[in-house]
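Teaching assistant here, posting this on the class forum so everyone can see the example we discussed in section. The complex has two components, and the goal was to see what a joint structure prediction looks like when all of them are supplied at once.
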Amino acid sequence: MDFQFLGTSSGTPTTTRNVTGLALRGPAGGWSLVDCGEGTQHRILQTTLSLHDLRAVFVTHLHGDHCYGLPGLLASAGMQNRTATLAIVGPPPLWRFLEGVMATTELGLPYALDFIPIAELAGKAVLPDLAVDAIALSHRMPSYAFRFTERAVERKLDAARLRAAGIAPGPAWGDLQRGVDVVLQDGRVLRADDWLLAPRKARTIIVGGDNDDPGLLLDAARTADVLIHEATYTEAVLQKVGPGPMHSSALRTARAAAAAGVPNLVLTHFSPRYQEGDGPLSLAALEAEARGVYGGNLFLARDFDRYVLERDGVCRRHVPA
Amino acid sequence: MDFQFLGTSSGTPTTTRNVTGLALRGPAGGWSLVDCGEGTQHRILQTTLSLHDLRAVFVTHLHGDHCYGLPGLLASAGMQNRTATLAIVGPPPLWRFLEGVMATTELGLPYALDFIPIAELAGKAVLPDLAVDAIALSHRMPSYAFRFTERAVERKLDAARLRAAGIAPGPAWGDLQRGVDVVLQDGRVLRADDWLLAPRKARTIIVGGDNDDPGLLLDAARTADVLIHEATYTEAVLQKVGPGPMHSSALRTARAAAAAGVPNLVLTHFSPRYQEGDGPLSLAALEAEARGVYGGNLFLARDFDRYVLERDGVCRRHVPA
């Protein structure tokens, strides 16, 4: 599984960071987009991603910096002659937003949109390779995290035990690997389930929307490999700004991640006031604040950074050359 | 007067061209935006333009590549604490588009929007320094050109004739320059109007929206200094694509400009199929086609190119360093 940041700024774009967008790839082909701030399609032009391979768009909440890029992205996919149905998952106002924009701007698409309200997500198989569910967060409007979990996790044959039982590699091994029970020539019956090792843990990535209470993700994060969550401010700035915007600080997000024991934490959605360099309004300050309370693998997202989550749960950043 | 292109691609952005947006400055301070495709605010971040100084937004028509950047631009101006009322001029669906987006995405602004439907533009003084009127074009939906004309054109004193009449430079000259009639000590009455030279021609710039019939601008262009108009295709591609999209070719636009005798023609809104270099799908091909029929000053717009229209009507391109 891997994910690539298309925007990591909160509210407004900067010269180096766009507003929110994240491309997520599961083990099967194609990709999903989580949030689609204005200019997401421009970011996509600078990656290897194609709008033809986009399977679904998940929108965490309806603030403009998370959805104003969607109409233009849909229009461009149409101009590129996309024909495959596109799933759109989000809070119900998302559909009203899109219908209104499409009607007033006479946007016709050569493909269908399949809108799935978040409340109906549980029963839908939106993606072939990833199960998706949503977790309600706390923000100025309904906001959600999406949890993506591998559906099929391969089981390996217990080769050592097969050999010890005198069963040499052959067609029986293949059947067992595929989950098919086998009757040997000597009459022994081998039930596939008995000869397959316990499956590895299915990989899980949580992508949060805007949220001032990261503790809401505590339960979900306990079994996740990666938590991607906003850290709009340092705690000092959050205290100064006050609770009105309903965002998290690096401190609060990192504390929740530490409490959940999630091994990989990726912070994003930084206020434009935070710049490179040092000082209290730097990314370094955000990072230091999080490191003070979180001992896992900590990353601060930058636009275009791509992360790979390996089968063994190791998460690595691949900074583009 | 000057204008700067923020986007010159039709339909979808490319890696070098954004969708349509044009910044226009008159002789007074502040600036206006004509069209606001997605990513216009990102372009603005790379210029010296400030959303605080934006006086008005003019939208030629409601296709997404001309208006999908407006909600995000309005939101960012709000986050930058703009307080001045912003005029928004466009076809009536523009207001429904904005109202729908603002309602569904809970976009509140700390400044007022003054929506002026194009039909009511005639009676409004939207800009202090430029008179603006709209001319209906021909496209798949209602589309307009905006004509910007200097309001106040300074008149110079006829200094030679004043001196010949024995009236030496002094307070009387200042009064006459300001249009105030003067009674000299010798009893002579000088009417200001008699001693001011004829005003120079007011500068006029026409900015067209999408349009398959540039001849509709013939009358207006006859008295304009600059015509900025789409040339989406070469004529050969337009013939191949057919009339459905209702765009102009470089040939058709240049022919109309030649017929009107407009001294400066700036082509823009190029299909993404046209690239740098040569060959039939190059900007050079678009340029050659226009030059074949138009003998005035011809320019092909590129993103960020800024043009200055001097008081004497000379138009020059200032390519940023």
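For the discussion questions: DSSP finds eleven helices and 16 strands in chain B. Chain B has two domains: 2-154+199-318, 159-195. Think about how each of these relates to the inputs above.
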